TrEMBL record:
It is a multi-pass membrane protein. The chain crosses the membrane at residues 25-44, 56-77, 98-124, 136-160, 167-185, 225-245. GO terms for cellular component: ATP-binding cassette (ABC) transporter complex. Keywords: Antibiotic resistance, Cell membrane, Membrane, Transmembrane, Transmembrane helix, Transport. It is found in: Cell membrane; Membrane. Its main location: membrane. Residues 23-248 form the ABC transmembrane type-2 domain. One of its GO terms (biological process) is response to antibiotic. One of its GO terms (molecular function) is ABC-type transporter activity. It holds the Pfam family ABC2_membrane. This is Transport permease protein.
Amino acid sequence: MTTVQDSVTMLDRNIRHTLRSPDTMIMTIALPVMILLMFVYVFGGAMRVDGAYIDYVVPGIILLCAGFGASTTAVALSTDLAEGIVDRFRAMAIARSAVLTGHVVESVLRNLVTSAVVIGVAVVLGFRPTTDPVRWLGVAGVLAMFVFALSWLSAALGMVARNPEAANGFTFFFMFLPYVSSAFVPTSTMPTWLHTFAENQPVTPVIETMRGLLMGTPIGDSGPLAVLWCGGIAVAGYLAARWMFQRRTSS
């Protein structure tokens, strides 16, 4: 029970930091919105997909938004370590795991909010999901699962980095993976070698699951694959983050 209370305290601390740093929220939202505008109005006319291109591309933009938001966990943790805040926490009677849990849960909540804003902008631009309340809950669940997994992986990378700048660089691939997936174009249009990678990387099944839930298209085996990928990444990230955190705070 003490661990839960400590985690809630750390969560409250991180939420307050986010609210006091609006530039972080603005950038987390502005970047995906700009990319959405670019793909819909600049590249959209050249894209050939079933239905309106904005309906196809929005799930990918949401995942891009989530990946960017989750990557900030690495920078936040690295900043705490660099500024000595974690050393102060060690002198207090709190669970060490609460520091990591607070950052990860805050990341999930923050990214759900920013993703909702991006979806709202997309609706204004013409996005028309054909879904129901139950499927909307499914979309939120898949998105939360994806952000949760990436946030733990990001936390582990934040422990590896020696400074916030390096932590930011380590998470670059979070922004890269959606581009090599079915986020913006069907994978069938890619060269064979790239198509194979795009079909078998973690982002594609998550996007296809969200697209199916939002647009009422078949999900197939994308749902189970998304759960397996997210679960595996979350477990690996959690174990690595806990181990690295204990190493860096044991001296």
